[in-house]
Amino acid sequence: MSLLTVSDLTTSFQTGGGEVTAVENVSFSLEKGEILGIVGESGSGKSVTALAIMGLLPRPPARIRGGSIQFEGQDLLKLSDRSMQRLRGPGIAMVFQEPMTSLNPVFTVGEQIMETIRAHENLSQKDSFGRAVEMLEKVGIPSASSRMTDYPHQLSGGQRQRVMLAMALVCRPRLLIADEPTTALDVTIQAQILELLMDLRDEFGMAIMMITHNMGVIAETADRVLVMYAGRVVEQAPISRLFDHPLHPYTRGLLSCVPTLDQDQERLIAIPGSLPEPSRRPPGCRFSSRCLSAVPACSEAIPALETFEPGHAAACIRIRDIA
Amino acid sequence: MMPLLEANGLTKHYEVETGGFFRRTKTALRAVDGVDLTIEPGETLGLVGESGCGKSTLGRLLIRLVPATAGRVIFDGTEITELSPKALRAVRRGMQIVFQDPFGALNPRMSVEETVMEPLLIHGSRRNAAAREAVARMLEMVGLPNSARYRFPHEFSGGQRQRIGIARALILRPKLVVCDEPVSALDVSVQAQIVNLLSDLQAELGLTYLFIAHDLGVVKHISTRVAVMYLGKIVEVADKRSLYARPLHPYTQALLASVPITHPAQRKRGPTRETRITGDIPTALAPPSGCRFHTRCPHVMPVCRTEEPAMRTGEDGHQAACHLVPG
Amino acid sequence: MTERKRASPFRTAMRRLLHHRLFILGCVLFGIVLFVAIAAPLIARVDPNKLAMRAKFRPPGADFIFGTDNFGRSLWSRVVWGARLSVLIGGAVVAINAVLGTAIGAAAGYFRHLDNGLMRINDALMAFPAVLLAIAVTAVLGPSVNDVIIALAIVYTPRTARIVRSSVIVLREMEYVQAARAAGAGHWRILRHHILPNAMAPLIVQLSFLFAYAVLTEATLSFLGVGAVPPTPTWGNIMAEGRQYMTDAPWIITIPGAALMITVLGLNLLGDGLRDVLDPRLRIQQ
């Protein structure tokens, strides 16, 4: 049995201009110890998917219209608030993009980590202090025990993200959701945090959902990749398949439009247009308005996710013609 | 050939009050600390560095959007650091800036036409048919439909807003454009459009760019030469090919080693990543003595802690400020 | 021109306001007060100060819709003319405030070297309770309607200046302001085109509440006997006189009290509506 199975998840948001769909028919699964990369840009629904799994979507305005989220055999969408609270931490934990606003500025780093421990385990003050220090050392904070009494503003951005990781991991979760964990950080710090995440995965054996817009971060970390566009999964593949044989035109575009250090090209191959707002999505395939391979049939129906190789699926009716 | 812009000993210190209620002390935040730099006409000088290294402040100093604490800037043969406000206004036609944040860079209460036309009005044009024609041409050049002119910023996507910002910067036909992280706030799939647009406009209008960014891939793509900045100082400047192929300064080496790989087959773990660096950037309130990079440098030597390395020029003009580089 | 003009931020705000029910209610309430104030010479032809000792303490009825007071004056006339004074005083205070507050706030926020001096004077003025300061000022100037206006302007301008200043400080650092500077724009142009138009939203909200404060404070001053001198028909004066007869002729104090309440309630609803639509910081929290 998979650790996490999301089936046909559909969520929407109530806005001033009516209800808009944020995530539509999203299905995927995640095995123990696996790193699943979820790639997408703003409005792709990747963060909404993560928040739905965590049970942290603000409802209203958000609404889960259908589907199920099975974690270790339990449907998270049917759990009570209390059971969900108990699961957050030891079951599923999350780190966010912005390490400054994700820590409470009026409590020390130590207080915040120990608070997390004692919310889930019956440990003495002394034992939870020891656990917190040990965790801070694991995430690479130098002289951890003296950092325990620091307030968040006394730490650098990279250190804050390490503290966030320590808080997320202190209850040994089976699944860590990392939502753009390095986007706010500089490259030298990003490299450190990504390496740390990989090391912690090896040590704790947890599964990671790595949500990012950066193909480089995916290349560095993921075992398997889900590509999302405008609320739908457009491609799913094992990591090397995705980079060697991307099928969906959007995935191909994403891989070729970012200038890299080992290529030299005169012009970048740009994807035309911009991401459609949820209320202005084109009919049929949502990428059709920007796709260079689009034909009239693309606007007729939303293409289904079709498996081309074991583990490699894409939602595009043109794949056989353009491959 | 005379450089289009030349900066000597350019310095910007911000006064920051620190300490408690009763013992206030003023400390200088050394945002930019003695930078020498030249920009040749027609080139794109890439300026890279991590957040807080002073690259954005340097960009604004060069076009005198912020006044310098010390040093001078010569633009197109005119020293601009001491110019009177009136004389400065004339010089400003020649240098413009494109900002990072496509939301904050446009006045929400001004239509696209008003925004793009404003620089013309500042420099004495009337709001007449000729000005409107100039706006129409400019919008076409940046790839916006003419119908965009009566619309307001909130009706546009990030990429389109960036096009409006570029149109405003170019309508005076400047010689130098400072591009301050022009694509980093945009969606990945839109970044390439803007990079291509900037390249096309450069070729068409003969522009010179200072391209400030933290994305080393984008900088490599668009630049002719690249300068690397660390804690308020330029540590390495070289031709693009030379810099990316043979980085001399350990900081540049570390930056390049930190860039994520482009294919999972390149994955390496553990000790092979020795050029990557540990630790965080020290604060510009109290930069380390000697070489500012010595606290994080994998090749640090005793001399680095005490003596600041001078900029040394090697073959083909490749410059680096490091004691390891033969002078 | 066949080109369809797109919704400017101003039009968008107007459309949203028209769908705001409490704002509409506020407009109606304040609209009534405004109408009464303007139409006073037409709807209250009896001189509010005309004494009729034989007709004193008449309860509201057919002859006198609001009844008469202890001197037999028509309470209808007095309350209607009182509305005229309240609106005049409130409007004048708001106008003076808008001009002075914007000027001081913009100067302090935009020109850093003026900030310290201007804001310390501001702080000193704001340290006094509003009513106390107003009493002190009228004590120096004298108790006429004009002097009450000046007193209230002095009391409330620092608050307005502070609000404008804080918007200007934020706006000054916006990149579109930097872009205008890079294009060579002077201070005046930057203030007029880029900073002040964007600082107007919180100011307008503040001014609508200020109108209510000014009306209330003026009534308080009159009630305490330090405002416009009796027999000037201000609501505060009427209530002060009616206080002694509260048990025997309760209409004398309650009717101007109700008028005051309607005015303040209307203005507050109006201000809340404006804030919901215009102030983006609060909009995000919704």
Notes on the structure:
The complex is a heterotrimer of chains A (323), B (327) and C (286). Chain A is of the alpha/beta class. Chain A has helices spanning 46-54, 81-87, 109-120, 125-138, 144-147, 157-169, 187-204, 215-221, 239-244, 249-257, 319-322, and strands spanning 4-15, 18-30, 35-39, 62-71, 74-75, 92-95, 175-179, 207-212, 224-229, 232-238, 306-309, 312-314. Chain A folds into two domains: 1-91 and 177-261, P-loop containing nucleotide triphosphate hydrolases (Rossmann fold, 3-Layer(aba) Sandwich), CATH 3.40.50.300; 94-170, no CATH class. Chain A has eleven helices and twelve strands. In chain A, α3 (109-120) crosses α4 (125-138) and α4 crosses α6 (157-169). Chain B has 327 residues and is of the alpha/beta class. Chain B has one domain (5-94, 172-320): P-loop containing nucleotide triphosphate hydrolases (Rossmann fold, 3-Layer(aba) Sandwich). Chain B has ten helices and twelve strands. Chain B has helices at 55-62, 85-92, 112-122, 129-141, 158-170, 188-205, 216-222, 240-245, 250-258, 302-306, and strands at 5-19, 24-39, 44-48, 70-75, 78-79, 95-98, 176-180, 208-213, 225-230, 233-239, 312-313, 319-320. In chain B, α3 (112-122) crosses α4 and α4 packs across α5 (158-170). Chain B is globular. Chain B starts with a strand and ends in a 7-residue tail after the last strand. The model of chain B has no long low-confidence stretch (mean pLDDT 90). Chain C is mostly helical. Chain C is 74% helix and 0% strand. Chain C contains twelve helices and no strands. The radius of gyration of chain C is 22 Å and the shape is elongated. The interface between A and B is large, with 47 and 44 residues.
